[in-house]
């Protein structure tokens, strides 16, 4: 590792963010049957990818590329509607880069590294000094400018963002084994016996899938990797381990650059990759003081601002009162004669009378029929729930009709509802 002169001024303005958003996220089951994981709705208003993109914008990065692949229409439509405000006349750019066989007529993106390699000509046309490679499927707030500075100061070939996790849970991650100066001495993918952080035997460092390179060096690495027929064309399997092996990689602790709402707030990062994790992360937002602050005006989460009428609550009889408590309710919703508790209602949800809704994540356009009782559910967008439907009271009945997770969350889609009448 050798240090190069650190440019004056914000490093983010010399950088390009490249978001890898092609993955399905199969552990989210039917939620990703029609959309890629980064396009999954989150937080009553946004999509998962909005967090990585918002971090880039809030950090000062004004050149962004998004590589898409799996069932990309929903994601591309969202990006076109919500992220078209960057202007080339201000030296800004926003490129949506679907897998389009640009290098080979027979291959799509073969891996995360290949998803960058196939678009090197586009990247080089902008001339960024630094590349910030991002995963598009995690929920967190982070200032990439801090990580860029750390990268320059260390003289590393690559800087890898890492999050501290309990060592007993680290086998589910790619784990960085570091020395006392946070130089990465080895990288292990889902190890049975994860190495601990020096001086902290119960803590391990897990990769967040966020990397900083100088563009020149990244280009060299990608071209070298593309020439290797044995490569998986993947950052975690090929690019990063090769740099680690020659001593050119350092770890950057998420705690140093995470954006907190208060001095005591946790360093919030979530991989909402399972139905249970997705439900819990959404429901956690209903806490009086949630760990993830969506109301922080200093670090806003940008998204597509759909034009909707205000949310509306109607009926005020003793057994038919439209209300929501400890809940997030988006525009276009109408809650009529039912109490909604500890739930998230995305845009244009309709909840009809005489029901009970608690611990529900209702995606856009859901209609809840009269006398329905819902507990601990995720309902996919556009689903029409029939009158009198009861979910969350009989585990065996729920498992026969719907997708019931190990944690007892019921995922409901329209085909599942349609099958009830067969």
Automatic annotation (TrEMBL):
Protein EC: 2.7.7.27
Keyword Nucleotide-binding recorded: yes
Gene3D superfamilies: Hexapeptide repeat proteins, Spore Coat Polysaccharide Biosynthesis Protein SpsA, Chain A
Superkingdom as given in the UniProt entry: Bacteria
Pathway named in the protein's UniProt entry: Glycan biosynthesis; glycogen biosynthesis
Keyword terms, alphabetized: ATP-binding, Carbohydrate metabolism, Glycogen biosynthesis, Glycogen metabolism, Nucleotide-binding, Nucleotidyltransferase, Transferase
Residues bound to alpha-D-glucose 1-phosphate: 109, 174, 189-190, 207
A biological-process GO annotation: glycogen biosynthetic process
Catalytic activity: alpha-D-glucose 1-phosphate + ATP + H(+) = ADP-alpha-D-glucose + diphosphate
One Pfam family linked to the record: Hexapep_GlmU
Site (Could play a key role in the communication between the regulatory and the substrate sites): 69, 108
ATP-binding recorded as keyword: yes
InterPro entries according to UniProt: ADP-Glc_PPase, ADP_Glu_pyroP_CS, GlgC_bac, GlmU/GlgC-like_hexapep, NTP_transferase_dom, Nucleotide-diphossugar_trans, Trimer_LpxA-like_sf
UniProt GO molecular function: ATP binding; glucose-1-phosphate adenylyltransferase activity
Domain Nucleotidyl transferase: 18-286
Glucose-1-phosphate adenylyltransferase/Bifunctional protein GlmU-like C-terminal hexapeptide domain segment(s): 309-412
Functional description taken from the UniProt entry: Involved in the biosynthesis of ADP-glucose, a building block required for the elongation reactions to produce glycogen. Catalyzes the reaction between ATP and alpha-D-glucose 1-phosphate (G1P) to produce pyrophosphate and ADP-Glc.
PANTHER family in the record: GLUCOSE-1-PHOSPHATE ADENYLYLTRANSFERASE, GLUCOSE-1-PHOSPHATE ADENYLYLTRANSFERASE-RELATED
Family the UniProt entry places it in: Belongs to the bacterial/plant glucose-1-phosphate adenylyltransferase family.
Description of how the protein assembles with itself and partners: Homotetramer.
Protein name: Glucose-1-phosphate adenylyltransferase
Taxonomic source organism: Muricoccus roseus
Protein's gene: glgC
């Amino acid at each position: 590792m050798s240090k190069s002169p650190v440019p004056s001024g914000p490093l983010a303005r010399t950088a390009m963010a490249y978001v890898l958003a092609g993955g399905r996220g199969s552990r989210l089951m039917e939620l990703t049957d029609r959309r890629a994981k980064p396009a999954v709705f989150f937080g009553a208003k946004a999509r998962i990818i909005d967090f990585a993109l918002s971090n880039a914008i809030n950090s000062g990065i004004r050149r962004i590329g998004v590589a898409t692949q799996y069932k990309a229409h929903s994601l591309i439509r969202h990006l076109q509607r919500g992220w078209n405000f960057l202007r080339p006349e201000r030296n800004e750019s926003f490129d949506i880069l679907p897998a389009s066989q640009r290098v080979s007529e027979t291959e799509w993106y073969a891996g995360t590294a290949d998803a960058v390699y196939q678009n090197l000509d586009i990247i080089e046309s902008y001339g960024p000094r630094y590349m910030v490679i991002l995963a598009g499927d995690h929920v967190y707030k982070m200032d990439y400018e801090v990580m860029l500075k750390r990268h320059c100061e260390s003289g590393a070939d690559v800087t890898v963002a890492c999050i501290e996790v309990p060592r007993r849970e680290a086998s589910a991650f790619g784990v960085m084994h570091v020395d006392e100066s946070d130089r990465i001495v080895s990288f292990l993918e889902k190890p049975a016996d994860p190495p601990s952080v020096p001086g902290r035997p119960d803590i391990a460092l897990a990769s967040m899938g966020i990397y900083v390179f100088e563009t020149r060096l990244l280009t060299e690495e990608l071209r070298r990797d593309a020439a290797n027929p044995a490569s998986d064309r993947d950052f975690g399997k090929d690019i990063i381990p090769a740099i680690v092996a020659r001593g050119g990689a350092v770890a950057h602790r998420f705690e140093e650059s995470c954006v907190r709402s208060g001095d005591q707030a946790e360093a919030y990062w979530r991989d909402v990759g399972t139905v249970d994790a997705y439900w819990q992360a959404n429901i956690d937002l209903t806490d009086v003081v949630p760990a993830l602050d969506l109301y922080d005006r200093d670090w806003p989460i940008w998204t597509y601002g759909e034009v909707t009428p205000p949310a509306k609550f109607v009926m005020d009889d003793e057994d038919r009162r439209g209300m929501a408590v400890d809940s997030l309710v988006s525009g276009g919703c109408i809650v009529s004669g039912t109490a909604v508790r500890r739930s998230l209602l995305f845009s244009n949800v309709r909840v009809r009378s005489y029901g009970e809704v608690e611990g529900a994540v209702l995606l856009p356009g859901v209609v809840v029929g009269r006398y329905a009782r819902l507990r601990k559910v995720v309902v996919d967008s556009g689903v029409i729930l029939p009158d009198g439907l009861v979910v969350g009271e009989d585990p065996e009945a729920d498992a026969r009709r719907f997708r019931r997770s190990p944690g007892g969350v019921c995922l409901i889609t329209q085909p599942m509802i349609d099958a009830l009448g067969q």
